[in-house]
Amino acid sequence: MLEHLLTKIRSFGIPRIIIILFLLSLWISAAFLSIPFPALLSDTFVRLGMNTVLTLSMLPSILVGTSLFFGLPLGIICGLLGGVMSIELNLKGLTAFFAAIGFSIPLAILVGYGYGLLLNRVKGSEMTVGTYVGFAFVSLMSFGWVTLPFKNPEMAWAIGKGIRVTVSLEGRFSNVLNKLWAFELYGVKIPTGALVFLGVMCLFMGLFLRTRTGLAMQECGMNPKFAKASGINVDRMRILGTIISTILGAIGILTYAQGFGFLQLYEAPMYMGFIAAAAILIGGASLKTAKISHVIIGTFLFQGILVVALPVANTVATLGSLAEISRIIVSNGIILYALAQKGGNE
Amino acid sequence: MERNGRSVLEMKNISKEYYGNKVLKGINLSVREGEIHGIVGENGAGKSTLMNILFGMSVIHSTGGFEGSIEFLGNPVTISSPFDAMALGIGMVHQEFMLIPGYSVTENIKLNREITRDTFLSKILGPGLRTLDWESMGQDAKRALSKLEMDIDEWARIAGLPVGHMQFVEIARELDKQNIKLLVFDEPTAVLTESEADRLLSTLRKLAETGISILFITHRLHEIMEVCDRITVLRDGVQVATKSKSETTIEELARLMVGHSIESVGKGKVNLAERKTILKVRDLRVLMPGETVQKVDLDIKEGEIFGIGGLAGQGKIGIANGIMGLYDSDGSVEFDGKPLPLNDPREVLKRGLAFLSEDRRGVGLLLDMSVEMNIVAPAIEIHRKFLKDVGVFSLLDRAQIRAFAQEMIQKLDIRCLGPDQPVKRLSGGNQQKVCIAKALALEPKLLFVSEPTRGIDIGAKKRVLDTLVELNQHNGMSIVLTSSELAELRSICDRIAIISEGRVMGILDPDADDAQFGLLMAGDYAVRQ
User: Fold this and answer.
1) Fewest C-beta in 10 Å: which of A69, A248, A258, B434?
2) Nearest to B82 by CA among B57, B61, B103, B110
3) Residue B61 pLDDT greater than 70, yes or no
4) Where does a domain end: B427, B443, B459?
5) How much of chain B, in percent, has pLDDT values that exceed 90?
6) What is the mean pLDDT of each run of 10 residues along chain A (346 residues)?
7) From CA B26, how far away is CA B49, in angstroms rounded?
């Protein structure tokens, strides 16, 4: 009986259990500190809606065998460019949001293709190379943002050329998904539109994985030699996986931005990849296998902890910037922990 | 040059079991002073195990040790580690070079036996701080090399040396050990050119004249006949014979080495002359590491079972891998009257060829995936089978996949908990059947099968071979069977090609004389039929 229980626990993943216990302990201390629980849960749902698509972008990359998608900043920048274009064209509301996605997808395909070609040349060290390519591209685009000829006064610097560091989406597509069909349940605000959107994205991904191409992609990740012997062009599949990840990164940052209310340019995308990677790892994925359930569970746990850690830290440590410091320690600590447990549940 | 010196090594009644599988049965080996003693045998005959026992390798002791006794220079000895063997004066020249490429010849020869000088610091802080005496080390190296009459610069780096020279550096390292009494050469000529090999053989003779005994392991029979005083033949772990050179011939050795009893599966003879050629291979070269194919011409007839045999590393494995496009190859291949593109696995599969890889777990299977997905995956990719249209998506048809998998499980008797069990949990034999089912889903006209019975138990072996015969007889599938086990080839094939050094040495009937098979395997051009 005990043994049975132990294997059950092991197959669920000990790291996941530890994270869940951590989240529960934070919730309990929040209750003791009389921090309103419905508000916490509302925030968690909002953040789930904002972050899940970014986490989902890890999935194709892992399945096709290029490991965690640390090139996520590339996709993010494509998404930001789409967002900026949609503002430049003076679009508003859901139209602006979907137009932004529409603009960013061709860019993401191009960038993803190039990045895929690069990854095929560095097989075995995709994660390291990806991290630095992401960093380099972010820095390169910092030049881009100052030189791009966007004219809309909402975005441009008051003096000189270029776009501001943060662009407000107020009156554009801020909260368009969160407010869509939103309702309140026992004081918990449910951002229905955002949740439906992420549901649709996950559904599409699930269907894709059940197609012939989706299967071929997974074969490449599981055993490239098998894939080759089955007549699959492994390198091409890896490029395809990278492109899909890049597109999801672009869509992901736009869903993130609609919930956040701002487009953050310049250096902001730098570390987004780590957050998404940590989330999927906590969800139970390994560097070689992942499921859609891992994406959702992982994002919920990771964002749930961040949401509750901040007010708890604020109440416990009122001194100066101690709250901010402890928030950084918690979030980076979880990333570190997730990467250290990257074995996932075998 | 019969030598009747005292005995250096006596291995008496040596037996060894690996997990209940007897790999050596009562071997008696004696080596006299200054004698060159040859050991011949096919792959898996027990040569390596015997040497592992002699060197006290941990693989022997961690699997329950061995039976029998060893005497060295007349005294019973226990050799429980390679260090014991070294202390006794037994040296080994390895098949794969154990040299450090970035070091000089001298450094490699003196590695771990460096000559050192005391310094001021070493007297206080211990021997770790002694300095190297380069001069005398160089002299030692030069002396060892000159015993081999090799004119190699003792300060040259290993990395730049020709392969033949590396072999001699390896020998020099053993010779430099002061007390060396017995030297084991494990297939030393395998990587050498003909002239280098000749030189090595004459070196062996000179070494023997200085009183060093030599155990010479090889599968090249003519080399054995050239230098050895006595020869021991191993087959399936049994000592078939020990003969002195004067009382045997190459033909006899070849026969002794191969000599399997043939179990026929009861397959009738077919008249191949009337059949049309389904696969025509010309000038095939394949760059498969360790199994390079140099130049192969073959004609496979429709509906036959064609066997490809030969020793490990000679290139027999490379042929199927090359034609299937898994390793870089060139040459011309014609299938069913039309040219077949090389280096294009997809096109080859589409044209109706399929392949059961020798690397079942590495290439043949998706270990974490279910039995059913393993069976259907290539057919989905190549022939777009098992799909159904749902809206804009064309999705996997679970019901159809399940039905086909059930059918295969029943037909091939795959023992599993169900179609959704991951294949990594199945036994080797059942994994092989999953591979066969996978190939059948592709409905091939010609099936390449490489080492189908490697690592599976005897009962399953028989069933796998029976299945191949049935596919051939009832479905008319042409089969090219590559195997290291000659007995297996002879039991089901219509013709057998023997590959040596990347070339076809000859094509024989399955019931041809043992000696002929042995000679072709040993790659002796001179006596080629």
Assistant:
1) B434
2) B57
3) yes
4) B443
5) 24
6) 74 78 87 84 90 94 91 93 90 90 95 94 87 91 86 78 84 85 85 92 92 92 92 93 95 92 88 87 84 91 85 74 73 77 49
7) 13
- Nearest CB among A207, A210, A230 relative to B381 is that of A230
The Cα of A5 is separated from the nearest Cα of chain B by a number of Å equal to 22
Provide, for chain B, the percentages of residues in helix, strand and coil under a 3-state DSSP scheme, each rounded to the nearest 5: 35, 25, 35
Taking only residues 338 to 357 of chain B, the set having a beta carbon closer than 8 angstroms to any beta carbon of chain A reads 345-350, 355, 357
Query: Residue B362 falls within a domain, yes or no?
Result: no
Single residue among B259, B287, B319 that ends a domain in this structure: B259
Question: Residues B167, B36: one domain?
Answer: no
Give the one of B363, B393, B394 whose C-beta lies nearest to A229's C-beta: B363
pLDDT of residue B268: 62
pLDDT in tens, B232-275: 998 888 888 888 888 888 888 888 887 655 455 556 666 777 78
Same domain, B391 and B512: no
Whether ipTM exceeds 0.85? no
| Residues B202, B150 share a domain | no
Among A210, A222, A289, beta carbon nearest to B395? A210
Shortest CA gap A11–chain B (Å): 15
Question: What pLDDT sits at residue A344?
Answer: 43
CB contact under 8 A, B395 and A232: no
Beta strands in B49-169 (DSSP E): 67-72, 75-77, 90-93, 116-117, 131-132
Total domain count, chain B: 4
Residue with tokens 């390079």: B292
Residues B184-215 have pLDDT tens digits of 988 877 767 777 788 888 888 888 888 889 99
Based on the fold, state whether residues B71 and B198 are members of the same structural domain: yes
Instruction: Identify the pLDDT of residue B1.
Output: 41
Q: Residues B203, B207, B211, CA angle at the centre, nearest 5°?
A: 165
CB contact under 8 A, B359 and A230: no
Chain B's closest residue to A230, CA to CA, is: B378
Whether B472 and B515 map to the same domain: the answer is: yes
Q: What residues does each domain of chain A span?
A: 18-340
Domain residue limits at B413: 370-443
SS3 assignment for B443-478: CCCEEEEECCCCCCCHHHHHHHHHHHHHHHHHHCCE
| Rounded CA Rg of chain A | 20
Contacts of B345 in chain A (CB under 8 A): 228-231
**Residue A214's closest chain B neighbor by CA?**
B395
Least confident of A8-17, B148-157, B273-282: A8-17
Return residues 212-251 of A near B (CB < 8 Å): 212, 215-216, 219, 222-223, 225-226, 228-233
DSSP helix/strand/coil, A98: helix
Based on the fold, state whether residues B425 and B476 are members of the same structural domain: no
* Whether residue B316 sits in one domain with residue B456: yes
The residues, ordered by sequence, that sit 6+ positions from B347 with a Cβ below 8 Å of its Cβ are A231, B325, B340, B341
Q: Does residue B38 sit in helix, strand or coil?
A: strand
A232–B387 C-beta distance less than 8 A: no
CATH level 2 (architecture), domain A18-340: Orthogonal Bundle (1.10)
Interface of B with A in 360-419 (CB under 8 A): 362-369, 373, 377-378, 380-382, 384, 387, 393-396
In a domain, B31, yes or no: yes
Give the mutation candidate from B366, B390, B425 for the A interface (greatest A CB count, under 10 A). B366
∠ CA A242-A247-A248, nearest 5°, is 95
Instruction: Dump pLDDT digits (tens) for B413-440.
Output: 888 888 888 898 887 888 889 999 999 9
SS3 A345: coil
Task: Indicate the pLDDT class of residue B481, thresholds 50, 70 and 90.
Answer: very high
Q: What is the pTM of this model?
A: 0.76
Amino acid symbol at A228: K
In a shared domain, residues B129 and B191: no
